[in-house]
Amino acid sequence: MLEIRPTCEHCNKALPFDSKEAVICTFECTYCASCAAGLFKNVCPNCGGDFTQRPKRPEHLLDKYPVSKTVIYNPKDVGAHLKKYNL
Ligand SMILES: [Zn+2]
Ligand SMILES: [Zn+2]
User: Residue 46's domain spans which residues?
Assistant: First the structure.
C-alpha cells in the first residue's frame, strides 16, 4: 500500500491525499509536479527513475487506511542532479 506522504520532499509543499500535483517514483519518493518536472526534469533525484502521478486515496477509505503523517524533507542540489543524469 502506498504511504501517501504529506509533502514534497524537495520544497515541503503540502500534498494532501487528493492532490493533483503529487507525483511519485517506483520507491514512492514524493514530489510536487513543479519540482519533479521543472527542476528534476522528470528524473527522481534519489533513484534515477521516472515519475508518475500519485493516485488519489478515496476519501471513504481514509479512516481505515490513513495517509502518512511523516514529513520527509530532503532538498536536493538541483545543479548536481542535472549534471549526474546529463539533463
Ligand atoms: Zn516541490
Ligand atoms: Zn525515487
Answer: 22-84
Residue 6 domain flag? no
Q: What is the mean pLDDT of residues 78-84?
A: 98
Give the ligand at the shortest distance from the Cα of 10: 1
CA distance to 4, 15, 82, per residue, from 77 (Å)? 24, 21, 9
Percent with pLDDT over 90 in the chain? 100
56 alpha carbon – ligand 1 mean position (Å): 18
- Residue 3 Cα to ligand 2 midpoint, Å, equals 14
Cα dihedral 37, 43, 47, 53 sign: positive
Where does 1-87 have alpha helices with state H? 33, 78-84
Q: Is residue 76 part of a domain?
A: yes
pTM for this entry: 0.95
- pLDDT for position 6: 98
